[in-house]
Amino acid sequence: DSLSRLFSRCGHVQSVDICDKPGPGEKKDKLASKFFDHKTLKGFQVAYVVFRKPAAVQAAKALSQEGPLLISTESHPVKTGISKWIASYEASIVDPKELKAEVDAYMQDYDKKVAEEEAKAAMEEGVPDEEGWVKVTRKGRKPGLPRTEAANLRVLEKEKQKRARKELLNFYAWQHRETKREHIAQLRKKFEEDKQRIALMRAQRKFRPY
């Protein structure tokens, strides 16, 4: 808004596109939603000011001779500091009703598109093309599950795999503990056998430790 106001003295400003870095002069598509896919630009930025008439470009070049252009003035102040942070925070709060309305509208468009694709596939099912080929779709052989049911099946399968991995890890831990117990028991048994052998050799006066 500030750039449009500053350059409007040169001619009618058609659009102002702000980018994070210089690039081709192709105009980016505007975001369809203000809730999703919104990227906040930080740091230095590049602005492309598009005028309706070419003569305005020459007038804009001549502005450099008039001195710097002030974005924030008494008549058109720009918020900074705490006031800017407060405004940014208030703008970041999402209205639940507005968000729900946008999501419902998106899902209606999506369901309509899916229904049109399914109707088109049903019409083409079993109909040969110009070369005589018949297109076989997944829906014709086995209808696909609804989105919710398929999602539930995926969640159940993930939980099943997670339980199987946990049981396998518990089995390995139990097996490791049993192996350690057996090893300790063997060491104790060998220690007792060595004690008995030493006692017997002492009794027979054949004990020679060195």
From TrEMBL:
The keyword Coiled coil applies. GO terms for biological process: ribosomal small subunit assembly; rRNA processing. GO terms for cellular component: CURI complex; UTP-C complex. Transmembrane segments: none annotated. Residues 91-210 form the Ribosomal RNA-processing protein 7 C-terminal domain. Keywords: Coiled coil. The keyword Ubl conjugation does not apply. It comes from the Eukaryota. Residues 177-204 form a coiled coil. InterPro entries: Nucleotide-bd_a/b_plait_sf, RRP7, RRP7_C, Rrp7A_RRM. PANTHER family: RIBOSOMAL RNA PROCESSING PROTEIN 7-RELATED, RIBOSOMAL RNA-PROCESSING PROTEIN 7 HOMOLOG A-RELATED. Belongs to the RRP7 family. This is RRP7A protein. It comes from Quiscalus mexicanus.
